[in-house]
Structure formats: structure tokens, C-alpha cells
């Protein structure tokens, strides 16, 4: 039975450790916390950055419209409307006017279908995509004309539509111009 005197404890006596804390284990420091939070934030950012690419093959993507716009602009500026294939981006003014006048192609031009049927002229499936082709004067944004023919074809893109645009710098009748192809 205990006596009324002081209680004697037996066992280990606390000693000072290397950090100067007697009897306490080391806790989480500020640096540990900062490293842990940084790693967590990097993992979360990685997941949010790459999760959309996991579903990309199953969603509608605008890259197809961009490819169609680029190929159509190249086909017009470097093949169908040029005076000679060895001089790309130098448009033949007569054939360019014939392409946009929708009366029918001239026998000396490099195309079989004109702007009256843009999908056939450019080889685009119009059940999926719509097209607009315009030649504008540089500098400025006025639609170019040749011999009274306005160099624009196709309907205007609707407001709010996801439109892919491809531009080519061309030389038309000795003047700088820009060929613009819009696909949506």
C-alpha cells in the first residue's frame, strides 16, 4: 500500500535529444507541409490538364474543319487559280474571275467546277461542312473584284458558329490580296 510519502517512479528518465526537445517525437514541419501540398497540387493540375484528352477521340473536334480550310486554301492558291503551277500564289485574274462568276469554267483554266458548287470544286463533303471563299484586297478588307466579278462565294458563317479560317497571301492582277477560306 502506498504510504503518505512521495511516489517514486521507476523507468526511463527523459533526456535531451539532438533537436533539443526532451521527450517529444518530431512533428510535421513547415517544409514537410509545403512539399506535400506542392506534390498534391501538381497531381491535381496534371489530372485536369490531361483528362480531356482521354475523351477526345469520342467527341466532335474542330481539327477536321481546320484541315479542310487549310487544304482548300492551298488547293485554290497553289493549284486551281494560279497562272502556272511553278508560280504558286500568283493568281490568273481571268480564271479567278471565271471561278467566282458561276457561269461556268473557261477551257483554259485549271478547274472543272466553279464557285457555284464549292464542295465539288474543292472536294469537300457539304453534308458535314459549309464553306465560304473570299478574296480581299490588301491593305484593307474590301472584297476584291476583277472585271466586275465580286470574288466571294458561299454563304456567310452564322453567328456563334465554330469557324475555322485559313488565309493565303496571293498576287492578283499585280496587286496584293488575301484568299480567305472559312469552314464550319
Report what the structure shows.
The strands form two sheets. Strands 1-6-7-2-5 form a five-stranded mixed beta sheet. Strands 3-4 form a two-stranded antiparallel ribbon. It contains four helices and seven strands. It has helices at residues 30-55, 63-80, 93-101, 118-122, and strands at 90-91, 131-137, 145-146, 149-150, 152-153, 164-172, 175-183. With 184 residues, it is an alpha+beta fold. It starts with 29 loop residues before the first helix and ends with a strand. The radius of gyration is 36 Å and the shape is elongated. It has a domain at 63-183: Ribosomal protein S3 C-terminal domain (2-Layer Sandwich). The relative contact order is 0.14. A hairpin with a 2-residue loop joins β3 (145-146) and β4 (149-150).
Question: Which ranges are low-confidence, i.e. pLDDT below 50, for 5 or more consecutive residues?
Answer: none
Structural class: alpha+beta
Q: Indicate the CATH architecture of the domain at 63-183.
A: 2-Layer Sandwich
The tally of strands reads 7
Question: Which term fits the overall shape?
Answer: elongated
Reported by name, the CATH topology of the domain at 63-183 is Ribosomal protein S3 C-terminal domain
Give the fraction of residues assigned to helices: 25-40%
CA-to-CA gap between the ends?
Answer: 95 Å
Q: Largest beta sheet, briefly?
A: 5 strands, mixed
Strand content: 15-25%
Radius of gyration: 36 Å
